[in-house]
Every structure is written in structure tokens, then in C-alpha cells.
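Explain this fold:

***
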Amino acid sequence: MIQRIQTFYLLLVILLTGALPFWVNLWSDANGKEIFAQNEILISGAFMGAAVLAIVAILWYKKRQNQFVVNRLNMILNLFLLGFFVYRSLNLSGEIEVSEKGIGMLIPVFSIVFLVLANKAIRKDEDLVKSVDRLR
């Protein structure tokens, strides 16, 4: 479980989605107030859901197909988060006063990249197991 590379990728996803959104700001409003994930209940719930899905994927290391599906669901959740952030950033730029986008808006992008890498490693493991089963 721990020695597999996809576990490392999933641990990075847990750190990205479970801890980082609460330390880096997602955006700043027109008054200069920084908005973090804990200020928006739906956003923090989505980030925590992504972290929980990554934990579930790590714990299902013997069920590679289920692990693959859970990672796909996590990617869809991160795509929804990314879509919300894009929508929000387009609305922020239309204000009368200038507002800033935070670095936290890129968290779903990095999370998706690591989930794709984890799925690639899971598929590689699955192909290896299938090839060994053929030799028996």
C-alpha cells in the first residue's frame, strides 16, 4: 500500500485539498478582505469531500478497479470546484473596484493532475497483475 507511487500521489491530493485551502486565500474581495475555504461552507465541504475520497482510495489498495472509480469521482468533484472558481473569478473581475484572485484557486488543477497520475499508476499495476495471471 505505502510503497506504491499512487499512494504518494493520493497523499499529495489529501494535503492539497484537506489542508492547503484553509491556509492560502482563494480570492480577495473589493474591500481587500481575503476569503479562505472556511469562510464558504460549500467550498470547504467540497474540499473536505475530495480529501475523504482520496483517503478512501488509499484504503482500497486491494481493489484497484474501485480505487480507479473513486479517483474518477474525485476528479469530477475537483472539476466542479474548478468551474465554480472560474465562474467566481469572472464575476470578480467585473466589479467597480479591483479585486484579486488568490493562489488557492489553482488547488483543483493540481489535485486533478495528481489524480490523473495516480490513475495512470493504478492502471499500470492492474495491467501487471493481468499479465502475471496469464502466465499461470
Q: What stands out?
A: Residues 5-128 form one domain. The chain has a mean pLDDT of 84.
